[in-house]
Design a protein that fits this description.
The complex is a heterodimer of chains A (569) and B (198). Chain A has 569 residues and is mostly helical. Helix content of chain A is 64%, strand content 2%. Chain A is globular. The chains are: A mainly alpha (569), B mainly alpha (198).
Chain lengths: 569, 198
């Protein structure tokens, strides 16, 4: 790996470490309704919203009320999004002449953005009008991100409150997350992005006559404002087809660096917020450490694999730059792989290089990151709630089995009901990914999808359902996903992956909230410190590997072995 | 039922409307206003205008095949029978060919043969035979530019040193010495070679 890439990684990690306590403490203040520096400006807006919407900000909800609000909001948003995408050709603000999306495509797209997935079976330049981009897709970027954050906060409240019935108010948590956290950061960074070269205009695509005399139509739009929230909210849906590889979505190495920071800012900071709620920052740092360790190993493996280039190329090619198929010059193969590791260890799914063209092991890393449940650090909110359940609660349970004691987490007993909900989360993920992949590989409609032959074609299908179930949205882009089969099965994978996790997690939160706290004794397994971080890493790797190793063996692993043997398809 | 309407459905619809106005109308409008005033060139796509005509964007690559021009990377953006060279800036795309794809290896092998026929037998820099991620990559590596100097100088009847000087003017080094790759902007080099940069 080139030294410059390593320096980039080290400085990047340092900045994440710096941001975490600052933003994490701020998020805690906001979500508990305390006064912040932005309150003089935003508090009147917040109160006006509650008045208009008939929301009583002091009325808290139990877990069922909270979950119902999440679901009702989702249904309303999916229906509205579907209608607008179907009618975008007759609605105003369509300078790029987008045609209406077909019923199955509009269903897939609307579900995709509401579930924070941002899987795209349409092409950004021509498949969505400026109106759809601004009023539906960009708005969902904010609301789906804030929903994830709200659910994470509700879970943390459930884990840390004593003998409580309620988890907070979903409408209030949603509003505060957007107003005080996502929106202010977005405004500032969007202006910075324009300065760096991102377009921000409502004008139609531009026409140019090139130096060699051909006509070039250059897609434009309000790109910068959407780009920030795409990364900050771990959404990932590009305004343009090539996503963050497009020079208009990612013009310079500096914008690329900031985009990577935006993806990690909130998910890692929420570990600090968790520490605040738990009354012990070491609880948060233990989770942070486990997340960071798994991420770093994957990132270095992917960067190393890309640096080696493609051994099947003719020897007359100088591959000093590494594997450059599907990589833009300004980023390079190493930073392309780093971006891939970040976008898939969060639930973002933005790409600055095509994962489909990565060397086999570099392609395995994003796939495995998603299949771990996107918890290293995971999506905005979704990462923390996933990690607390798949990582922390499962770890104390296994530690409890080893010493023969009832497991405890944050002073509360973890009992049969909580373990059932936790296992549901783990099983839903594996069942959806492997079930849909099996269905696609066994049917002609599914087999029609892959662009590449051999094991790589199987990887394309596996990646598609991993990405959609995990609400990631990145793709092995060769798959032809805009067919009724892939649009509809994909939409269900996204719904299962989102609400099949949120509902059991809120149920678990409600159950934990009602428990009393028991005093720690000598037999209590401490959930702070390095030992606990190591245990969490062990548990998530073992659960992920046991569930997905057979499928991965049929895809990227066998492809790497066949590439070593010089085989092409 | 009434509590459901009052505490669930009404807040959901009303809040979605309010948030749509704030994040879908007010937010992009404010950013657009600031951008158009503070950075009008970038906000409208960094277009390059020569003699009143738009010749392209400094951020978006174009197809070059004339020996007197610096050539950019192969492109998979909007490739059709009518437009085999790609670089369709309304259809950004990569090839998505996997590392063991026969189509990929065959395409690279053919590109190597073509480049060696035009530029001599030095090893071919990898970025000249691989498609970029966007299909609109405006840049190539300094090695890939250097590889083409002799051909451009011969086609134009100027010295290699003159070509190198133009390339050097449009070469960017990593920010702060580590951020990003060293790179050469192809369109700017070609405009400069043609004497069209003011």
């Amino acid at each position: 790996m080139p030294a410059a890439d390593l320096v980039t990684l080290v400085i990047f990690a340092g900045l994440v470490l710096l941001i975490t306590p600052i933003l994490g403490a701020y998020i805690h203040r906001v979500m508990e309704g305390e006064r912040t520096v932005l309150s003089p400006v935003l508090r009147p807006v917040e109160r006006a919203i509650y008045r208009v919407c008939g929301i009583d900000e002091t009325a808290e909800q139990d877990w069922k009320g909270y979950a119902a609000s999440v679901l009702v909001m989702a249904v309303v948003a999916i229906v509205v999004g579907y209608v607008v995408l179907r009618l975008q050709n007759v609605l105003p603000l369509n300078p790029n002449s987008a045609t209406p999306q077909s019923p199955d495509l509009a269903f897939n797209t609307s579900v995709s953005f509401e579930t924070n997935t941002n899987w795209q079976n349409y092409s950004g330049e021509t498949g969505a009008s400026y109106l759809s981009q601004m009023l539906i897709l960009a708005v969902r970027n904010f609301t789906s991100a804030a929903t994830g954050m709200a659910v994470a906060i509700a879970l943390v409240r459930g884990l840390t409150r004593r003998s409580a019935k309620t988890l907070g108010n979903f409408w209030v948590d949603l509003t505060r997350g957007i107003l005080y956290i996502l929106l202010p950061i977005s405004v500032v960074i969007a202006v910075f992005f324009v300065w760096q070269g991102m377009p921000q205009t409502l004008n139609a695509p531009a026409a140019a006559t090139t130096l060699q005399g051909t006509q070039q139509t250059i897609a434009l739009g309000p790109i910068a404002s959407q780009e920030v929230i795409k990364e900050l909210g771990n959404n990932g849906g590009g305004f343009l087809n090539a996503n963050s590889a497009h020079p208009f979505e990612n013009p310079t190495p500096l914008t690329n660096f900031v985009e990577m920071l935006l993806m990690f800012a909130v998910p890692f900071s929420l570990t600090y917020t968790f520490g605040r709620y738990a009354g012990n920052q070491r609880q948060g740092w233990a989770i942070f450490g486990a997340m960071a360790a798994v991420f770093l190993v994957g990132a270095v493996v992917a960067m190393h694999s890309q640096a080696g280039g493609n051994p099947l190329f003719p020897t007359t090619v100088n591959q000093a730059l590494g594997s450059m198929e599907g990589v833009d010059t300004r980023f390079g193969s190493g930073i392309g792989a780093l971006f891939a590791a970040i976008t898939t260890s969060t639930s973002t799914g933005a790409i600055n290089s095509w994962h489909d063209s990565f060397q086999p092991i570099a392609g395995l890393v994003p796939l495995f990151n998603i299949e771990l449940g996107e918890i290293t650090p995971g999506g905005i909110g979704a990462g923390l709630y996933g990690m607390l359940v798949i990582g922390a609660i499962l770890s104390v349970f296994i530690a409890g089995l080893m010493v023969g004691r009832t497991p405890e987490f944050l002073g509360k007993k973890v009992e049969a009901y909580e373990m059932k909900m936790s296992m549901l989360v783990v099983l839903v993920l594996g069942a959806s990914i492997l079930g849909f992949t099996a269905l696609a590989t066994a049917t002609t409609q599914g087999q029609a999808g892959p662009l590449n032959a051999g094991p790589h074609g199987f990887s394309e299908i596996l990646y598609a359902y991993s990405s959609q179930t995990g609400n990631n949205g990145s793709a092995f882009g060769g798959l032809s996903g805009n067919t009724p089969f892939y649009n509809i099965t994909g939409a269900f994978a996204m719904l299962i992956g989102r609400y099949g996790m949120i509902i059991p997690i809120l149920a678990l939160a409600g159950s934990m909230a009602g428990k009393r706290r028991v005093a720690a004794s000598l037999g209590t397994f401490p959930t702070t410190g390095v030992l606990f971080s190591v245990l969490v890493v062990g548990v998530i790797i073992i659960v992920g590997a046991l569930t997905f190793f057979p499928a991965l063996a049929l895809g990227p692993i066998v492809e790497q072995l066949l590439q070593n043997a010089g085989k092409v398809f | 039922m009434r509590t459901f309407l009052r505490h669930q459905l009404y807040p959901a619809i009303a809040l979605l409307l309010a948030l749509t106005f704030i994040t879908g109308v007010a937010y992009p409008a404010v950013v657009t206003a600031i951008a158009q005033v503070a950075f009008p060139n970038q906000a409208n796509g960094s277009m390059i205008v020569v003699d009143g005509k738009t010749v392209g964007s400094s951020l978006i690559g174009q197809a070059f095949s004339d020996p007197k021009y610096l050539w950019g990377r192969p492109s998979a953006a909007g490739v059709t029978d009518a437009n085999p060279a790609g670089y369709d800036a309304n259809n950004s795309a990569g090839s998505n060919l996997g590392p063991t794809s026969k189509a990929l290896i065959d395409r690279v092998t053919a590109a190597v043969d073509q480049l060696r026929a035009a530029n001599g037998n030095a090893p071919v820099p990898v970025d000249l035979v691989t498609t970029s991620a966007s299909g609109l990559d405006p840049e190539i590596s300094p090695a890939a530019a250097d590889y083409q100097v002799a051909r451009i100088a011969a086609a134009r009847g100027i010295t290699q040193a003159a070509v190198r000087a133009v390339i050097a003017r449009h070469t960017q080094l990593p920010l702060l010495g580590f951020l990003g790759e060293p790179r050469v902007n192809v369109l700017l080099v070609n405009l400069d070679l043609d004497g069209l940069l003011g």
